[in-house]
Amino acid sequence: MTMEFPDDLKYLDSHEYVRLDGEIATIGISAFAVDQLGDIVFLELPDVNDALEKGETFGNVESVKAVEELKAPVSGTVVERNDAIVEAPEELADDPYGEGWLLKVRIGDESDLDDALSADEYRALVEGE
């Protein structure tokens, strides 16, 4: 399977990604993470209006192999949650960078992403594993 690492995203070494559009950050998990997890069976996400704190756990993704904590790449307030993916988490594998997004967050400070990885840096990280 060829891994995609879209250049317009920022990545964490814990495999979350962020697509920034003004002050709204769309957060999801990378195709690499989805592939490593295998069959995803459950997703736990915060509610709209919940606050995220950069670096803190904001939910879980559960597969037949493991339960992984989701780490917030930015601090901010949840403005939208992808309920369709919560109801059908197995669909994350189909389109992790499109329909498989998890949250949209209004961020407080864009500098939260200063230490995030570029697509090339993230690719080097996961291909080196």
TrEMBL record:
Task of the protein: The glycine cleavage system catalyzes the degradation of glycine. The H protein shuttles the methylamine group of glycine from the P protein to the T protein.
Biological process according to GO: glycine decarboxylation via glycine cleavage system; protein lipoylation
Cross-referenced NCBIfam families: gcvH (TIGR00527), PRK01202.1 (NF002270)
InterPro entries per the UniProt record, alphabetical: 2-oxoA_DH_lipoyl-BS, Biotin_lipoyl, GCV_H, GCV_H/Fam206, GCV_H_sub, Single_hybrid_motif
Residue ranges of every copy of the Lipoyl-binding domain listed in the record: 24-106
Keyword list, A-Z: Lipoyl
Superkingdom as given in the UniProt entry: Bacteria
Database matches in Gene3D superfamilies: 2.40.50.100
Similarity section: Belongs to the GcvH family.
Residue list for modification N6-lipoyllysine: 65
Protein name, as recorded: Glycine cleavage system H protein
Quaternary organization: The glycine cleavage system is composed of four proteins: P, T, L and H.
Co-factor binding details: Binds 1 lipoyl cofactor covalently.
Phylogenetic classification of the source organism: Bacteria, Bacillati, Cyanobacteriota, Cyanophyceae, Oscillatoriophycideae
Gene Ontology CC: cytosol; glycine cleavage complex
SUPFAM superfamilies listed in its UniProt record: Single hybrid motif
Cofactor requirements of the protein: (R)-lipoate
